[in-house]
Design goal:
This is 635_t:CDS:1. The protein has 140 residues and is mostly beta strands. It contains no helices and 12 strands. It has strands spanning 5-9, 13-17, 26-32, 43-46, 49-52, 58-61, 71-74, 85-88, 93-96, 101-105, 114-120, 131-135. The strands form 4 sheets. Strands 2, 3, 6, 7, 10 and 11 form a 6-stranded antiparallel sheet that branches. A two-stranded antiparallel ribbon has the order 1-12. It has a two-stranded antiparallel ribbon with strand order 4-5.
Length: 140
């Protein structure tokens, strides 16, 4: 049985396929965790890929700028390094294959939704760059 997770930031929000979209290129945002375990907030790890239960697509860097809101879901592309991630359990960061870049909450002051992007990892790691995987107990 596959385990599905909420990927939660320390801001109290989870990775979310915006509007429960199903098309390639749909933005990925942060939104309050939905207690009904909505499919658009559930993810699994598949090697270095983070896969959306909603779409079956993977978390992807869409385009430049690096420091802007630029994360979407797209079909897996073995040649796209913008789709490769590694979870650093010491720092609680989602590290991009791009050296020193990590998943970051870009606008923590905005209530909903929050934008995601990549930024250089900061030291010490701020809460806007820390994420945890919370296993969903529903809809396995």
């Amino acid at each position: 049985m596959t385990s599905w997770y909420f990927i939660a930031s320390e801001t109290g929000h989870a990775l979310d396929v915006s509007g429960a979209g199903i098309n390639p290129g749909t933005p990925t945002i942060l939104y309050p965790i939905k207690q009904d375990a909505s499919l658009n907030q559930l993810w699994k790890i598949d090697g270095q890929y983070i896969v959306s239960k909603q779409t079956g697509f993977v978390l992807s860097l869409s385009t430049c700028p690096i420091n802007g809101p630029n994360l979407v879901v797209k079909p897996k592309d073995l040649n796209d390094k913008g789709q490769l991630w590694k979870y650093d359990s010491n720092n609680f960061t989602l590290d991009s294959a791009l050296p020193f870049y990590v998943l970051t909450v870009l606008d923590p002051a905005i209530v909903n939704p929050k934008s995601l992007g990549l930024k250089h990892i900061e030291t010490p790691v701020p809460k806007t760059q820390r994420f945890i995987f919370v296993e969903s107990i529903q809809m396995q």
